Amino acid sequence: MRIRPYIPSKDYEYVSKWIDNERTHAFWCANLLPYPMTQKSFHDLLEKNAMDWTDSAYVATENSGQAVGFFCYSVNTADNIGFLKFVIVDKTKRGKGYGKEMLNLALQFAFQITGAKAVQLNVFSENVLAKQCYEKVGFVERKIDKDVFAYKDELWSRCNMIISKQSL
Questions:
Q1: What is the C-alpha to C-alpha distance for residues 59 and 87, in angstroms, rounded to an integer?
Q2: Could you write out the three-class secondary structure of the chain?
Q3: Scanning 82, 84, 102, 165, which has the fewest C-beta atoms within 10 Å of its C-beta?
């Protein structure tokens, strides 16, 4: 597996296919985008986050070049902590180690290339499989904000997780 910068004209079609229902969409983006998302709404959000947070978008590919995952990453220069957002893996690849491998590459990039001392992310506690994947990689729970997101008739809690360079 490799990671490379997201190429809008090439990669959107893959990412959009991985988000094929409203619940997955809400887990993935906390409804920061309308469902179903459009190429314009997605790229507008990526552009806004690049400007506001210096986020960069990346794609994980198999060695053949086939896209299998996506995430955004930025570093807060004030505290030198990286942040992963919009993490998703091809729905046909979930549960097969792709997410773990992609996250390990993202962390290698964060620690070795960007020099971050730690990396954090947020995940809904209700997104059990994603949370388990993050824990397998070494992320630990730092804080839980209870019932902060309304999805239909449910209230979801946001879990902030972190991994430090020393813990690897």
A1: 10
A2: CEEEECCHHHHHHHHHHHCCCHHHHHHHHCCCCCCCCCHHHHHHHHHHHHHHHCCEEEEEECCCCCEEEEEEEEEECCCCEEEEEEEEECCCCCCCCHHHHHHHHHHHHHHHHCCCCEEEEEEECCCHHHHHHHHHHCCEEEEEEEEEEEECCEEEEEEEEEEEHHHC
A3: 165
Measured in whole angstroms, the distance separating CA 110 from the mean position of its chain's CA atoms is 13
Position 167 scores a pLDDT of: 82
In this structure, the number of other CB atoms found within 10 A of the CB of residue 153 comes to 5
Distances (CA, A) of 138 to 73, 100, 108, 114, 133: 17, 10, 13, 19, 9
Q: Rounded to an integer, what distance in angstroms lies between the CA atom of residue 47 and that of residue 56?
A: 9
The CA-CA-CA angle for residues 19, 143, 119, to 5°, reads 65
Q: What are the tens digits of pLDDT across the range 25-67?
A: 999 999 999 999 999 999 999 999 999 999 999 999 999 999 9
Query: Are the C-beta atoms of 5 and 11 separated by less than 8 Å?
Result: no
Place of tokens 């986050």: 49
